[in-house]
Amino acid sequence: MHSSLKPRILIVDDEAGIRTLIAEILTHDGFEIQEAGSAEEAFQILDVFAPNLLITDYSLPDANGSALIEKAKSIFPNIKCLMITGWCELPNPLEGQTRADVIVTKPFCISMVETEALRLLADRLESPNPASSVAQETC
Predict the structure, then answer these.
(1) Could you read off the pLDDT tens digit of each residue along the chain, which spans 139 residues?
(2) Measured on CA atoms in the order 63, 92, 113, 10, is the torsion positive or negative?
(3) Domain boundaries, given as residue ranges, for the chain
(4) Distance CA 122, CA 30 (A)
(5) Fold adopted by 8-124
(6) In the prediction, which pLDDT does 57 show?
(7) How many Å apart are CA 56 and CA 66, to the nearest integer?
(8) Beta-carbon count within 10 A of 71 CB
(9) How much is the pLDDT for 51?
(10) Strand partners, 113
């Protein structure tokens, strides 16, 4: 199990530019970040890194984000999950089609992902951010 006091976030996206951008912003916010470019790489990191939040793209080269979320929640039942997708017709998470806590659709503003990460991990931060629970920001 990981011993850092900082909240830990695993970012999974096969687009390195998106991963890096999200990682840079969230590192600046005080989170400890690990990155993976595939579901397989993420599976290898999960047990060792023990993230508090998983941010994953829906469409990965070797699996989909929902399968990755299922695996993460089977290991860490309290993990928070944010899914990024270009598929606007993805079912609403409240209907039980995915176990993501938040779905953010592409194109997105990086501030939307940051706001939702801060909201999802507010209980782990020293000074919680009272961010909205809905990922509907206009950029």
Answers:
(1) 455 589 999 999 999 999 999 999 999 999 999 999 999 999 999 989 999 999 999 999 999 899 999 999 999 999 999 999 876 655 554 345 678 999 888 888 899 999 999 999 998 876 544 443 334 444 4
(2) negative
(3) 8-124
(4) 12
(5) Rossmann fold (3.40.50)
(6) 94
(7) 9
(8) 16
(9) 97
(10) none
- CA-nearest of 61, 105, 62 to 83 is 105
Vertex 110 angle, CA 82 and 70, to 5°: 10
19: alpha, beta or left, given left = phi > 0 and alpha = psi -120 to 50? alpha
Single-letter residue type at 127: S
Q: Find where tokens 């079912």 sit.
A: 91
